[in-house]
Amino acid sequence: MSASRPAYPTLEEVIGRTPLVRLQRVPGEANAARGNVILGKLEGNNPAGSVKDRPAISMIKRAEERGEIKPGDTLIEATSGNTGIALAMAAAIRGYRMLLVMPEDLSIERAQTMKAFGAELILTPRSGGMEYARDLAEQMQKDGKGRVLDQFANGDNPRVHEETTGPEIWQDTAGQVTHFVSAMGTTGTITGVSHHLKAQNPAVRIVGAQPSEGSRIPGIRKWPEAYLPKIHDPKAVDELVYVSQADAETMARRLAAEEGLFCGISAAGACWVALQIAQRVENATIVFIVCDRGDRYLSTGVFPA
Questions:
Q1: CATH 3.40.50.1010 is held by the domain 20-45+165-290
Q2: What SS3 state is found at 39?
Q3: Does residue 52 have an active-site annotation?
């Protein structure tokens, strides 16, 4: 009698459960002497390469469960990159037409990846930024061209991080995490993770990485008041630390060359913030989100040619 066939997972079933890795060289000897541990959560290990895989599949599946969409429908989303790639993958998995609205200055790698998944791109003027892209997506929905999932206002975004990312960090640090650092874009990651970690231990410090004045860091945004994501919960974040574009880009190069950790610029910005925290604490376990991989930034010139 033949052995039973293993229960192989589908692609969407392997989203999440990403590893935590300890930084070895970048923190330096002085930090080690203070007893601090800095851990990066490798969200680039997700199938489409970023932390956005989690909310992308969550928003589509839960909209299906509520009867709001069905396979074959057209979905619309304004995005600066990673959410678009993740939604393009999720739409391909579950059978949707995906229209992605984004500023024209996104990296070549991102655009090509979205198209590879079958998504259609609608590019908006660079001068309008993400604010214009969001407005256009909403207008397209009003015109009956599809349904906007709206990562900025959709509760299924932070919900999936509260249900998965936060518990993974708590479990993998054996409840010893003292600080959590994340770049802030839609704020879904930091809000959801905060809700879980604070429920386990209110003393855990939640720190958001924000761009300093004049800095353009993909994945880190400081929104005008009128465009502040509706899912943002100010009470979920204990502290904001501002990082410059130059410091984030330098850290991205250091992480690749000194740690073998090839990550994106916003992830490097979060790491820079984690290191600032480490300079003023002792015996801390600091976790930062490595939200994507560096290969989708090669054309930007951040890394050596």
A1: no
A2: strand
A3: yes
